[in-house]
Amino acid sequence: GPTKDDYETKIDKQKGKQMRLEQEKAGSSSSSSSSAPTCGSCKEPGHLNAKSKECLNYKATLSEMLQKDFGGIMEQFTRKFEFIRNVTFRAQIFVSSYIILNQSSDSLSAITQQNVWYSVSQLIMGQEVTNKKFLSNEIVFSFVAFRQTHPSILFTLKDHKITGYSDSLSAACVTLATTHFNHIVENFERRIVYFIQIKLKDVYKDTPKGFLYIMAREYCYEHLLGSNGNPKWPKQFDLVRIAHVNQIT
């Protein structure tokens, strides 16, 4: 029958087996390395081109760079800006409607105040107004009526949950108040002149609009300025009308 190997023979067989395993491993590694793709951009193995994130020349997308620099804060700011835009957009719609329907109201001057815009925004968000002294009952009642006709004017926190919006909303309301104030100041003269022109048209119905505008601008408006004005009677009108025009203005 077969004889058992002596001690030295066993040692030699174990060494031979270990050498074969090491040779096979080395051959496999060499084969794998030689078959790995090489990048055409950075010349490193393991990927094909610069589109791979493993490439040294990989260019990250905008969203990847924002995510790297800002993390989760980026999403929070994006949601906040969208929320503020929706609220202030609706606030402007309501205020514009209020101005049109209440042209003779004493509360129209309030649209140049930041606190009023913030209070209107609170109404838009379905909140209770925190500083009621800045918002007249007339505006509140008008909003209630407007909301009944146009329920989409609401953009409530209940339906659009968000926190930390107060500072951003306050800044937006400052911009709205300043914009309306500048609009009134920059267009004050033009509005007065056109108003006078309309009044003159009621009296001088057959006079061309162009002549009435000249009368309103060169004489009537300057006459209203008193000592600061320099009224010039238009040559298109006879002097008999001066007293009558002065009564209008």
From TrEMBL:
Compositionally biased intervals (Basic and acidic residues): 1-25
Location of the region described as Disordered in the Swiss-Prot/TrEMBL record: 1-42
Protein name per UniProt: Uncharacterized protein
Organism from which the protein derives: Mucor plumbeus
Taxonomy of the source species: Eukaryota, Fungi, Fungi incertae sedis, Mucoromycota, Mucoromycotina
